[in-house]
Design a protein that fits this description.
3 domains; about 200 residues; 3-stranded antiparallel β-sheet; 8 strands; about 35% helix
């Protein structure tokens, strides 16, 4: 069979074929609906995002913590995913193995989540409220400071020292927060102030 095809007929046929495939690719066919049904939804789509700092060391890498509604306890959020913060100037989204595994200690069954108190002579700890814990700490600090505060040394010079108390500061804090912490500890008269920072 001898078929004569002019340039004009070739261009018209090619244009029709191109138009048909383009319409199909743009979603005018049933394949798009089938493809959309086969795709799983993004696992972090229904979560809330919060920025925080890794608590492990003095590098203070930025973290993104994602949380979703707890299925067992509606209204309460549950941490579902932790990753590095790409916008953080310290780590630019990277995390060390301890930081990358932070989800394990956040969701650990043995993690202490509430203040615990062991009464004198008791053999186990019991859960108490935050108000009780803060009042207990403040009372013990005040009693110790009143009993051991040194206002003047042997030469009569005012020193305002509290030698029986020490303060250990964490490193995952801003410079401003560290400055305020230092001022409070020094204002109380503490001499032994240590920081967890290693850099």
């Amino acid at each position: 069979m001898n078929m004569e095809l002019s340039r004009r007929h070739f261009m018209m046929g090619a244009s029709a074929g191109l138009t048909g495939t383009t319409l199909g690719a743009l979603g005018f066919g049933g394949i798009e609906a089938a493809h959309a049904q086969a795709i799983r939804s993004f696992r972090l789509a229904q979560t809330k995002e919060a920025r925080t700092i890794c608590p492990y060391c003095a590098v203070s890498c930025g973290m993104l913590v994602f949380s979703a509604q707890n299925k067992a306890n509606q209204g309460k959020l549950e941490v579902t995913h932790i990753e590095g913060d790409a916008d953080h100037p310290v780590n630019r989204g990277t995390l060390c193995p301890k930081g990358a595994g932070a989800i394990d200690y956040v969701r650990s069954e043995t993690r202490v989540k509430y203040p615990m108190y062991r009464k004198a002579g008791a053999n186990k700890f019991e859960r108490v409220t935050w108000d009780f814990a803060m009042d207990r700490i403040a009372t013990l600090m005040k009693d110790d400071r009143d009993a051991n505060f040194i206002e003047k040394n042997n030469d009569g010079v005012t020193v305002n020292r509290w030698p029986t108390m020490a303060f250990l500061a964490g490193s995952s804090l801003t410079n401003e927060g560290g400055w305020v912490t230092y001022k409070v500890a020094r204002g109380l008269g503490m001499l032994q102030i240590e920081n967890q920072a290693r850099i």
